[in-house]
Amino acid sequence: MGFPPFFRVLREKGGDSAALSLSDFLAVVSVDRPTKIKLALSMNPLLMRPAELTDAESIARLINAAFNPERFYIDGDRTNPEKVRGLMDKGKFLLLWDDAALVGCVYVEVRGERGYFGLLAVDPARQGAGIGARLITAAEDECRAAGCHFMDLTLVNLRTWLPPYYRRFGYAECGTLPFPIDQRPPKVPIHLVQMSKPL
Ligand SMILES: CC(C)(COP(=O)(O)OP(=O)(O)OC[C@H]1O[C@@H](n2cnc3c(N)ncnc32)[C@H](O)[C@@H]1OP(=O)(O)O)[C@@H](O)C(=O)NCCC(=O)NCCS
Question: Which of 20, 139, 166, 199 is the most buried (most CB within 10 A)?
Answer without folding.
Answer: 139
